[in-house]
Amino acid sequence: MFKLLKEVFRTGEATVKYPFAPLEISKDFRGKPEHTAEQCIACGACTIACPANALAMETDVAAGTRTWSISYARCIFCARCEEVCPTQAIKLTPDFELAVTNKADLTVKAVFKLADCVCCGEPFAPAKEIAYVTALIEATSVTSADGTTAAVSEDTERRRRMLATCPSCKRVNDLVQIARITDQQEKRR
Amino acid sequence: MKMDTPADIKRMKSSLLSNIRRSAYVYRVDCGGCNGCEIEIFAAITPIFDAERFGIKVVASPRHADILLFTGAVTRAMRMPALRAYEAAPDPKIVVSYGACGCSGGIFHDLYCVWGGTDQVVPVDVYIPGCPPTPPATIYGFAVALGLLDQKLKAKTHIEGEGEQAGIAHPAVPYNVRIHIEREARRMAGYRQGRDIADRFLGMLQIPGDLPLQQRVETFAAAETDPRLAEIYLQIGETLQHPELRP
Amino acid sequence: MNINVTDRVGASHIEYLRQKLPHAVLEERWQTDKQVTVTVKLNQLPEAVSTLYYGREGWLSVVVGNDERSLNDSFGLYYVLSMEGEEKCHVVVHAAVPSDNEEFPSVTPKVPGCVWGEREIRDMYGLRPVGLPDERRLVLPDDWPEGLHPLRKDSMDYRLRPQPTSDNENYQFRNDAAGETTVVPLGPLHITSDEPGHFRLFVDGEDIIDADYRMFYVHRGMEKLAETRMGYNEVTFLADRVCGICGYAHSVAYASSVENALGIIVPQRAQAIRSLLLETERLHSHMLNLGLVCHFVGFDSGFMQFFRVREKAMTLAEMLTGARKTYAINLIGGVRRDILGEQRTKTLQLVAELREDVQRLLEMLLATPNFGPRVAAVGLLDRKIARDYSPVGPLVRGSGFKRDTRVDHAFAGYKNVNLGVHTGDGCDVLSRTMVRAAEIFDSLSLIEQLLDNTPEGPIINEDFVYKPYQFALGFTEAPRGEDIHWSMTGDNQKLYRWRCRASTYANWPVLRYMLRGNTVSDAPLIVGSIDPCYSCTDRVTVVDVKKETSKTIPYKEIERYCRERKDSPLK
User: Fold this and answer.
1) Can you name the CATH fold of B7-145?
2) Which chains reach chain C with 3 or more Cβ–Cβ distances below 8 angstroms?
3) Nearest residue of B to residue A103 by CA position?
4) Do B153 and A103 touch (CB under 8 A)?
5) Is B113 in contact with C219 (Cβ distance < 8 A)?
6) A158: burial class by Cβ within 10 Å (0-12, 13-18, 19+)?
7) For C21-62, how does the pLDDT look when each residue is reduced to its tens digit (9 = 90+)?
8) How far away is chain A from the Cα of B34, in angstroms, using its nearest Cα?
9) Cβ atoms of residues B125 and A99 within 8 Å
10) Domain range holding C283?
């Protein structure tokens, strides 16, 4: 009993002041995932990596949009999304004050436009994703451009066109090309 | 299967919230959680966080409860016990859904032996997300449940603006060099600390100077007091000697 | 995988088996240099398991079923034995059940520890263990449709939810007492902090004659989830959620099972970080249990003190991983966060504080007059029962067995540290509590050792090739004892089969023997002493053997009786 009392007096006030004063939290605490929609290219890497399916992506071809969403209700705060994001558009913040009375307030969405395929005109991929990859290719070609500018820009142009083509058109184009090559080989014989 | 709240009980509930002048009694209903939530609720009522200073007290029977705290994804075997606990609590009662599993089923949301969250079986008043919610998040949740604090989160929908474009990080550094640095930093220190380290390293590369790369990296590492960080900087510098990265 | 014959540990066990049962062994396959799977003839399975179990100091870790009909037209049965005599290693006894037969000879009559594993195989695969003395359901809910076996590959989608058929539980509780009894049910909801379970005590007056329990109220179907919705990397996060208290141990066990199966070399630094975090987890878990012991002996101030100090372990976890629980630090091949200089300093400081605090609290607890006499000679785990059922962790160490996976099968960073095994010989609640107390100081010292000699280099190796249909074991020593996982890769970046056995699963079957002969007021204390991720239940059915009366008593009443020891609820 004496030892207990000693311990009690030794400890004094142990309780934190929260919620009357802010709480000290580790810098890298995994709290609410914050999505910066401007920086997101809707590539879908996070939706595939999420173990809990808290992140989702829905494509509406008729409206030409792709909607990204996160449910904080389902989120398990593992930070896989942050780890796989190629543009640093999602990051876990130390914010832990997430309780709500209305479940709908636990969902954050972002709607992105789809780009149309340059061949068939059908929407197929987020416009921002294509723009981002195009910008990366251009940046790469600028840095390695000295001397052989013409050849490089021709290559860049070809890659840019390829990026703006939908998978099914690519397949058709490939077939056309294969047909042409076989044709030439036939002729050569 | 799901229960509903009649209108007069809704009225009683709002008057309970506005007139409560005594302790709020909480009964926990474990509907098949992993114990992570249970243990954090415990941490919330023990000395460091001490929810009891607000009169929040965990009680032993649903018949004494003002607040029912449901944890877990509601497993098949726990559906009836959960409903029995709900019915045993006197009206008006506040139902709190606790943790990712309670709020929506969490990582288990679509499994064969769960019903996917508290609101699949009983009406819920407050959701406390987290996996598990920390004790401060629990205290905040109770405060929201009792109407003492307002909720901060709001549903949001971002619509892509005209000309909106994702920026490229460190555009002055060649793409393959940046990717190489970021990958090596993640391999050495993981996604979070690695990203900070890569950013610092890339920042260093962009400071104008005539010294050869290796020398700059060595000076940078030598200025670092944390030996592990210095080791990582040197390691990243070494991989930059890779032939395909030479300009 | 190719393993040098000279590096293999455990070949003598196979030799022994071949000698004792000349024609039983069909094949041997080595997964790592200390893991071997021997295929035996199905009709000699019970002899093969018991030969290794009793003849070579084998302990049963887990029984795994696997639907391999698409691979080799059979169901696989794997009895995993941890060999703890000479040549410490894991031997897995495998037998194939032809797909058109659907039954196999039960091993339980020869090795009682197999009982839960075989009941689970019956539930999940619909294979009948012939000769199994207990044919009740184990895992599936009482109203689950007959004949629907979730882990059969062709049985159902993982999302199928059959409509509920009954609102009543109809589990048959078992009572081995001779003569008539009275029943005391306990559960499945509980008041303090317990997971759902349902107890039945069979009593004569105040004395417990027998006990039975229904667990698995929390069965969710994780193993099916791991082979359907998730990729192999995501399962590390699922494994974190097997248990909210010792989840990280599961995550490490799972990750190392896949790493062993695919032959991935995990960097030394990642291994050290894993061990360090496992010890952090042990700190908070053991302090939790010490707090609960205080609570059950009626010393609630002590409970609060232990929980106050325990928060330092939680702060440590938050700083190192970003979360107080569910660390989410593993990926296949390594870890996701490093320990930098700043964190190292803070960790050492917290460890030093914890050492002092825990020391003082322990002195306080031991100086409390009603503690020692209240827990000594209560809840005896007989050594013979322990040997037959293979319990793990502080429970078995409290009965004098030196079983500790960290020492027997050093994994992760434990190969490079100094660590002894604490045992007690009282076989009672006191011994188990003292083992846990000693282990707290071990954990603190291990964290310091690991920080003193942290290897340099990377923390993850993702440079590996995923190969289909490879399998192996992964194991850790969780706060409650050995966690063991068996994983087989599929052909689609997912798992074909994941079997995860938590430490408490191995400890439940002996609880009944520990309860027998004690008084009703000791029941919560005994259940708490196996640290079952929290005691268990809220309703105890007490059955009086002589009076033939049955009375349902709320668990809180029993718990109050345990704490105050007056006004018996049975009167």
Assistant:
1) Rossmann fold (3.40.50)
2) A, B
3) B127
4) no
5) yes
6) exposed
7) 999 999 999 999 999 999 999 999 999 999 999 999 999 999
8) 13
9) no
10) 223-378+409-419+452-495
